[in-house]
């Protein structure tokens, strides 16, 4: 996947969540135990963390930092943190040298893999948050199909790639098959 895919996913997240009132972030995010607020901060943390993996290509772990957001921060500020994370990941993907590999527990990955991981985080967690804030929101098929192709090679996206992605990330049954309780993507390049 490309830097533009990360940027497009973050733009989608912002559009889906910008109407959440400042005091609307406390409900649980879909099936998660996290609040909607904790989930959106997690997305920003992942995007920034993945940018670090691409930028410095550590062989053995993540850089030891976490994103912290002031508890008084409202919707505009929370979304700005996600936008910053997306911009950092997109910049790292654009400027990474060919062949760069960064550590990930599911397999050392290249810049395109970290872009796909970032897009996956944005997609599934936007879905999680919108279960509480905008239940009619639906996953866009194109990006779902793209992340399935990169991170779940060999999986048929079917006629509803969003449903397939939710299944493979442990969120929903698919065609009568229960959602897996444990799941993982394949970050290593093919």
Automatic annotation (TrEMBL):
Gene3D superfamilies: dinb family like domain (1.20.120.450)
Domain of life, per lineage: Bacteria
Record-linked Pfam families: MDMPI_N
Keywords: Isomerase
GO molecular function, one term: isomerase activity
Listed InterPro entries: DinB/YfiT-like, MDMPI_metal-binding
Domain Mycothiol-dependent maleylpyruvate isomerase metal-binding: from-to ranges: 8-129
Name the record gives this protein: Maleylpyruvate isomerase N-terminal domain-containing protein
Organism: Pseudonocardia spirodelae
């Amino acid at each position: 996947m490309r830097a533009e895919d990360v940027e497009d996913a973050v733009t989608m997240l912002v559009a889906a969540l910008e109407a959440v009132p400042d005091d609307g972030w406390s409900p649980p995010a879909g099936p998660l135990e996290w609040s909607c607020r904790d989930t959106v901060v997690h997305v920003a943390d992942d995007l920034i963390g993945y940018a670090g993996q691409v930028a410095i290509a550590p062989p053995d772990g993540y850089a030891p930092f976490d994103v912290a957001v002031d508890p008084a921060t409202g919707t505009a500020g929370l979304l700005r943190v996600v936008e910053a994370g997306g911009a950092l990941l997109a910049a790292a993907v654009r400027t990474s040298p060919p062949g760069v590999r960064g550590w990930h527990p599911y397999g050392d990955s290249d810049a395109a893999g970290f872009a796909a991981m970032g897009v996956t985080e944005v997609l599934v967690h936007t879905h999680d948050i919108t279960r509480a804030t905008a239940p009619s929101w639906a996953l866009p098929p194109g990006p779902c199909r793209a992340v399935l192709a990169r991170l779940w090679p060999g999986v048929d996206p079917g006629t509803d790639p969003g449903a397939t992605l939710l299944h493979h990330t442990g969120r929903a049954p698919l065609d009568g098959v229960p959602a897996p309780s444990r799941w993982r993507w394949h970050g290593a390049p093919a």
